[in-house]
């Protein structure tokens, strides 16, 4: 039976590839969630006035990859100490959020966040929010699979994130 996960971790272009390459993943869709505007456009979301975050919706097979595994992978793509965006992407629409779809996902996310805080990996508090999922709106088609369609532009956008991951997660 397929399940859903929704994560916001800055620019959605950079959040697709790590999940897309995992076994048990059916799809990873870039989109918007958490705001108050129906069917927002990229241009609207980037103004920071819609309340939406750029996010990815992951459809996965829990028999192959667990939600807990996805949360652990999520942490390794983000700076969980930065509440005001991620890397070069600044603003509320880039804030890190784990959106849960049920109480089990909420519990897994909260336990994982607590374990990360207690691990001492970061000197600063873990500020990633854990919020109930709202309607997920897929982004425009030109945003889907961006890393495959525009590898050089993706690499430029991903550079700061990749450096952070290497320094903080690849130890």
From TrEMBL:
Q: Which reaction does it catalyse?
A: [thioredoxin]-disulfide + L-methionine + H2O = L-methionine (S)-S-oxide + [thioredoxin]-dithiol; L-methionyl-[protein] + [thioredoxin]-disulfide + H2O = L-methionyl-(S)-S-oxide-[protein] + [thioredoxin]-dithiol
Q: What Pfam families is this protein classified in? A: PMSR
What protein name applies here?
Peptide methionine sulfoxide reductase MsrA
What's its top-level EC category? oxidoreductase
What's the stated role of this polypeptide? Has an important function as a repair enzyme for proteins that have been inactivated by oxidation. Catalyzes the reversible oxidation-reduction of methionine sulfoxide in proteins to methionine.
- Could you list this entry's UniProt keywords, alphabetically sorted: Oxidoreductase
Q: Which residues act catalytically here?
A: 11
Q: Would you identify the family this protein belongs to, as annotated?
A: Belongs to the MsrA Met sulfoxide reductase family.
Record the organism.
Answer: Tetragenococcus koreensis
Peptide methionine sulphoxide reductase MsrA domain sequence ranges: 5-154
SUPFAM superfamilies from the UniProt entry: Peptide methionine sulfoxide reductase
Q: What is its EC number?
A: 1.8.4.11
Keyword Oxidoreductase listed? yes
Q: Name one GO molecular function term.
A: peptide-methionine (S)-S-oxide reductase activity
């Amino acid at each position: 039976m397929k399940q859903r996960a929704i994560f916001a971790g800055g620019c959605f272009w950079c959040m697709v590839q790590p999940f897309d390459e995992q076994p048990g993943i059916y799809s990873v869709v870039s989109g918007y969630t958490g705001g108050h505007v129906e069917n927002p456009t990229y241009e609207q979301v980037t103004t920071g006035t819609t309340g939406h975050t750029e996010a990815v919706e992951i459809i996965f097979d829990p028999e192959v990859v667990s939600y807990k595994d996805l949360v652990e992978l999520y942490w390794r793509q983000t700076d969980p100490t930065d509440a005001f965006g991620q890397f070069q992407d600044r603003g509320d629409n880039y804030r890190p959020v784990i959106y849960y779809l049920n109480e089990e996902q909420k519990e897994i996310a909260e336990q994982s966040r607590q374990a990360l805080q207690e691990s001492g990996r970061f000197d600063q508090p873990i500020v990633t929010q854990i919020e109930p999922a709202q309607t997920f709106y897929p982004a425009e088609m030109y945003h889907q699979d961006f890393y495959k369609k525009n590898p050089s532009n993706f690499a430029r956008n991903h550079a700061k994130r990749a450096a952070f991951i290497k320094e903080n997660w690849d130890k």
